[in-house]
Amino acid sequence: MPNSGACHHVAYIPSLLDTFNDFASAFHRNWKTQKGDILTHCRQELMHAVWKLLLDDDFLHAYKYGVVVKCSDGIERRSPTCNYLRQGPVSMPWMYGQKSSLDQLGLVQDMHAHSDNFREYLKDKVISARKFIYQDAQPIGGTHVNNLLKETSSVPTLNAFVTRLGDRFNPSQMLAVNLLHEFELGVWKALFTHLIQMLYASPNGTERIAELDRRFCLVPGFGNSTICHFTSNALEMKKLFAQDYEDPLQCSIPVFEGLLDGKHDDRLMKLLFRLAQWHALAKLRLHTEVTLEQLEKVTVDIGKLMREFRDKSASDFMTYELPREQQARARRQQHAEAQRKELPEAETATTSRARSGLTTSERKQRKLNISTYKFHALGDYVSTIKLFGTTDNYSTQTGELAHRLVKQYYTLINKKKARKGKQKDNSHYKHGHELDPAKKDLFPKLQDHLLGRLLDRPFDGDTHEMFTDEDRAQISIVNDKIYAVKTLRINYTTYDVRRDQDVINPRTDHCTVMVLSGVEAHNAHPYWYARVLGIFDADIVWFDTQRGKVRRSQSMEFLWVRWLGEEPNYRHGFKSTRLPKVGFVPDTDDYAFGFLDPSQVIRACHLIPNFVNGRTLELLRAPGITAARAPGETDDWANFHVMIFVDRDMFMRYLGGGIGHIHYLTSVTNADEDNETEEGEDVPNIDPGSLVVTVEDEEESDDGDDEAESGDEIHNSRSDDELGPDDGEDLDEDDNGYGSMQLI
Q1: Spatial contact of 465 and 457, defined as CB atoms under 8 Å apart
Q2: What is the pLDDT of residues 623-633, one digit of tens each?
Q3: Residues 6+ away with beta carbon under 8 Å from 615
Q4: Distance from C-alpha of 117 to C-alpha of 176, rounded to nearest angstrom
Q5: Where is the composition biased (Polar residues) (predicted)?
Q6: Rounded to two decimals, what is the model's pTM?
């Protein structure tokens, strides 16, 4: 994993010393006219000189005879990656091809070129070029050298790998793709920047940019660090790490929806969907023949859609560089001018044009450019994965994350202080019970839910219409108490047979879950979605009238949820390039609110509001405060988009074929079915009639820390292993233990 901390700092390739310019200017008589070529050549020589030191005799022995390194998957892989800067007619580091064909990604002749035109290292020509430079004193960029090397974009530097590993070694075939720099920092960042430029160039561009920024701010987070909250100036893209550009891509579809007009918006939605799909497929940690075929097909689609968007949409806008780009360019120009005049930079800063108002005529025009190596390199991912394995094995994200290593040594200290416990009422549940639609028939629904689980009824959304009041009377809650729990941890097996965990917290944005649908109709959506309003557990006693026995009290966990349903007459899927759309079930439906067994939960899910449809009061007509909404909210979003691209595991749950998704294991928290009370045992006689629900939060006391913390969370394990932390781990510094829902 890129964030596993397994990166070790072995060596650093230095830059040229600051004194090198003085040395070279005194040594080389044509320094002023050939300065750029000389510096470029010396940097290349320096890098390969360092590589010759790294490729020492121990490495050569391991290279020749092998070294036993048992990885987690049992496979040994070596694959150096680097950033490729190519300036010349042939810009591909491992194949021959012309710049004019860089935008032809996905075409038949282009896909053949990726596999047929491998480069060869031209050692003889390189040696001849070096003789021109070092023996005949010919310019590095002169005619003699260019006649030998320019046609193939070669450089007059002896490759360290060929020198140390032998003339038969072809360095072009060891170069792997670089998804972080080629796609996330390359293709996607360029498109994202140009989309902002298009919005600026649209009518009312300032308002559209403000709306785009507002939408990004409203995108909820997901997971521990999968999707982080966007700042209020997300479009400025300031202080972002390289890997941070992944989040805007995964959330871009609902955020950009409707900001462009007509057919431009349709083309953009298709393009963004395919880009997110390609990104998810390319970053899979486990591939099959089917997923590689999908990746190849999507690559072809991306080439077609990008050319179509460039020719039919982007070309209709007169786009200019962004204000921040213009300001940065002005600062660079002033800095260069100050250096030429040998003036202190502080004197020029006061007259910076970047601080003054800038007109459109002062900004440079920008066009969407897909004639780049990074765009063309997307066609090499399938062949590279087949040759080297999945992209996580050679991702440069590992090196980028190593920059954060020092910052991770901050000592984590629990600053939580124990306070003397006392009881206090929570008015959120106690007041307004009769008027809150979320609490309508609350306890009968809970009885139906618990009774259905005790009778082993298949889960159908708790539509047990056959239960009568006499049946519900069989359920009793010990001591009239239901305990409110702060968090629920869902353990699950990922598509690549790894262990992972989601945390559900009703007090945060991480409160939406997905369960398997109970509908078996053709083309039915496979999942149901629900927003968790509360997490509870209680000791239940069941009067089994059929057997004439009283079951021993058992602890049962349940979730209080608000259901979401599919949008009617809405097509979605990979073929139609649309995300699933859901919305809250109207409160006029008897089953808009209900209860859910935690063992039914598959995963947390990420929902982003459909900003085009806006908010509405029609789904929940509550006159005042309601438990169904977050504090401060007075209405609901009309619809949400289900973010199937939020991570690779979620993507595979909708694409299908995930090896780890074949079996869904039951929760380890289920009570033993055979637990029954012994004859003569006293059972509380509770009348489960019309009850009022009150919640009491128990703050920690000095004598009851262990008991309080043990109720902070419920673990829902979908396997036999326990993945969660040890009992007693604190989740929040302001966590006050667990609450009790008192039935009075």
Answers
A1: no
A2: 678 889 888 88
A3: 635, 636, 637, 638
A4: 16
A5: 348-360
A6: 0.78
